[in-house]
Structures are given as C-alpha cells and as structure tokens.
Design a protein that fits this description.
Elements: E1 3-9, H1 12-30, E2 36-39, H2 44-50, H3 56-65, E3 68-73, H4 83-95, E4 100-106, E5 123-129, E6 139-142, E7 150-153, H5 159-175, E8 180-185, H6 191-205, E9 212-217, H7 218-227, E10 234-237, H8 239-252, E11 260-264, E12 270-274, H9 291-303, H10 307-322, H11 336-349
Parallel strand pairs: 1-2, 1-3, 3-12, 5-10, 8-9, 8-10
Antiparallel strand pairs: 4-5, 4-11, 6-7, 11-12
The structure holds nicotinamide-adenine-dinucleotide, 3-isopropylmalic acid and manganese (II) ion.
Nicotinamide-adenine-dinucleotide (NAD) binds next to α1 and α4.
Length: 355
C-alpha cells in the first residue's frame, strides 16, 4: 500500500491539496487502490512558530517511511527570504536526488490558449534538470551592502547530471511515442555549460535515430513557443531555464492553475507538486484552480502503475473544462471546492456528474 505524505504548505497550497486529497479518498473508496495519506505540518506557519523549516529526522522519515510526497506550495510574504521553501522544497529535490522534474502541459480546449493563432492540439512536456545548475546555492557575496558589492551565483553542471536528464527525456519520448526532443540552452554565451549539454545531447540522441532532435537558444525558444508552439513536444533543459520555460508552456496551455509536475528518480521515491506557487494574491478566497494539484494525482497514479485510473483523472479534468465547471482563472464562477467536488464525483461515478 503506497504511503503518501501530504504537505499542503502555504497560501493556496492548502486549498488545492485539500481537493487532491478529496480525490485520493474518493479513489480509495471506489477503486482497487489504497493509498495511505498522512498530512505533514511544514510551511511558513510552522517556521514562524518554532523557527524550524524541516529537521534531519523529518527528511529521514520522508525518505524512508514514504513512497511519495504531494506538496501544495511554499512561499509566504511573512518569510521574504523564502528560507523554508529552499530548505523543504529544494531540500527534497536535492537530498532525495530527484533529478527529473517532469512538467507536462496539455491544451485541453482551444479557448484556453491565449495566442492569436491557436494550434489544433498542443502537448509540451518539459524535462527540467532538478539537482544542479544555478540552484546549488554555490557562490557568495563580498562587501555586501557597499557600493563595491560582489555577488556570485555559480551554474554547476556535471556530466552525470546532464546525461541522466537528457537520457530520461529521450527514453520518455521513445516509450510514449513522441516524435521530437528539443534541447534548450544558451550555448552561444555559456560555452562551458552549453557545450556540455550540446555534446551529451548529440551523443545520447544517436541512440534514438527515429526521434527528431534540435537545439534552441533559450531566448529564441521563448519567442518560438509563442510563435509556433505546435512545433515542440518534449523539451529538455537545465534547472533555471526549465523553471522559466515550464511557466511559459503552462500559460500557453491555459495557465499555471492547470499545470502539474513530478520530481522523480525513476524507480525511487517521487515528489508531486503543481507548478504554481502559493499565490498570495488569491490565497484564502476559495478561488484557486485545483486542477494542477488534481493532475498531480493523475501523475501519481501513473507512477504507481495505475495508468488507466490516471487517464480517467485527465478525462474528468477535460470534462470539467469542457462543461465550464471552472474557477475564475479559466473564466468560470466555481470555487476551488466546487471544482474539486465535481471532478471527484465525476470520476467516482464513472459517468458525467449531474451537478
Ligand atoms: P504564483 O504561481 O504563486 O502566482 C503567479 C500568478 O498566477 C498569480 O497571479 C496567481 O494568482 C496565479 N495563480 C497561480 N496558481 C494559480 C491557481 N492554482 N489558480 C489560479 N491562479 C493561480 O507565483 P508567484 O506569485 O511568483 O509566487 C508566490 C510565492 O510562491 C513565492 O513565495 C514563490 O517563491 C512561491 N512559489 C512556490 C512554488 C512551489 O512551492 N512549488 C512554485 C512557484 C512559486
Ligand atoms: C518551481 C518554483 C521553485 C523553483 C521555487 C519556489 C524555489 O518556482 O517549483 O517552479 O524555482 O524551482
Ligand atoms: Mn517556478
């Protein structure tokens, strides 16, 4: 029986994880799965209460006693340095060595696309390197706060790290029948890092002759994703560029409220989280879109070998959008809770819900 740690976290994280939990509980009742759900109190409130972000023992427990984690969001205006998010979220990605940050974006209905020339269909799947790059915290600052201040943030990339994320992207494309893998980098300026990415991409790509392969500079890619997003399918890139490109891909396919992600080290533990943050501007108003978190449940089901139930989650999400059962970000007037209830009921019944 998979044991899942639920970490609602901050802001709308609490509201959207409540809906993901509702769905997991409905599936526990109606399907042949039995996920044990244990809620964890980690986030800004706890940090402000006792000064603790996450302890070594808690890390050990998440890693040894659980099969997966579902996290809402971390980020709170009362913690401007974001210390707790760095310790908890980046801590899990780094310490558990979850090197694949898989961020699939699918356009469910043409009217969700903000572009003028809307493509017929769109599936943009980003493989973001998740354990190195500009996120290691290596560097430092000197003469801080003076006019002579120096600030250094290293971009650390290893042959091993680059190869395993590129391999994961190609393997996914190969097993799931995708036709193109695109590398995104800035190798015209970052010769060392970009050079490594380009060399390894070409080497690994030789093993996948049936998959179209191209490499784009990140600035041109940002432009081209707006100009002709239908050209792209699987995107592989470094940690920082992946953070940026995946928000762009999410917006093109309907917005941050819809986008899920899976942080994985295949065969080991996984961390699922919506791509969006804690959205302080709408927190506590019961209007956040819970679909990103609900789609995380779909990814989790796929991960635990229940692909068919995962597809039904996707189908229920698509039905909610088709029927206009949506939160205000998608033009609807339902609450977070209404959308969560509708989707759970739709799946549990196996037929369109009547409310
Ligand atoms: P954000 O994703 O929280 O919000 C950006 C915009 O998108 C806001 O206008 C927000 O209202 C909207 N939005 C986001 N999710 C939505 C949803 N589910 N439904 C409807 N609208 C939604 O990004 P931000 O404002 O840059 O960051 C806020 C805080 O969250 C910061 O502290 C940031 O560091 C943190 N953050 C955390 C994570 C995470 O925990 N995985 C991810 C991104 C940002
Ligand atoms: C994300 C977020 C995080 C990141 C922040 C909150 C540390 O933006 O998951 O996309 O930069 O990876
Ligand atoms: Mn981000």
């Amino acid at each position: 029986m998979p044991r899942i740690a639920l970490i609602p976290g901050d802001g709308i994280g609490v509201e959207v994880v409540r809906e993901a939990r509702r769905l997991l509980e409905a599936l526990n009742d109606s399907e042949s799965i039995n996920f044990e759900l244990v809620e964890w109190d980690l986030g800004a409130d706890r940090y402000l209460r006792d000064g603790t972000t996450i302890t070594d023992d808690e890390f050990r427990s998440l890693s040894d006693d659980y099969d997966a984690v579902l996290l809402g969001a971390l980020g709170d205006p009362r913690v401007p340095g974001n210390e707790h998010a760095k310790d908890i979220l980046l801590g899990m990605r780094f310490k558990l060595d979850l090197y694949v940050n898989f961020r699939p974006c699918v356009l469910l209905a043409p009217e969700l696309c903000p572009l003028r020339d809307v493509p017929g269909s769109l599936r943009l799947e980003t493989f973001r390197e998740n354990t190195e790059g500009a996120y290691t915290g290596m560097g430092g600052s000197f003469k801080t706060g003076t006019p002579d201040e120096v600030a250094i943030e290293e971009d650390v990339n290893t042959r091993k790290g680059v190869e395993r994320i590129i391999r994961a992207a190609f393997e996914f494309a190969h097993t799931r029948g995708r036709e193109r893998v695109t590398l995104v980098d800035k190798s015209n300026v970052q010769r060392h890092v970009g050079g490594l990415y380009r060399r390894v991409f070409a080497e690994v790509g030789e093993g996948y002759p049936d998959i179209a392969q191209d490499a784009m500079y990140v600035d041109a890619m940002a432009m081209d994703l707006v100009r002709r997003p239908e050209r792209y399918q699987v995107i592989v890139t470094s940690n920082l560029f992946g953070d940026i490109i995946s928000d762009l891909a999410a917006e093109i396919t309907g917005g941050l409220g819809l986008a899920p992600s899976a942080n994985m080290n295949p065969g080991r533990q996984a961390l699922f989280e919506p791509v969006h943050g804690s959205a302080p501007d709408i927190a506590g108003q019961n209007k956040a879109n819970p679909i990103g978190a609900i789609r995380c449940v779909g990814l989790m089901l796929d991960y635990f070998g229940h692909a068919e139930i995962g597809e039904r989650v996707e189908a229920a999400v698509a039905a909610s959008v088709r029927e206009g059962r949506t939160t205000p970000d998608l033009g609807g007037d339902l609450s977070t809770e209404d959308v969560g209830q509708w989707i759970s009921a739709h799946i549990a019944k196996g037929t369109p819900a009547s409310t």
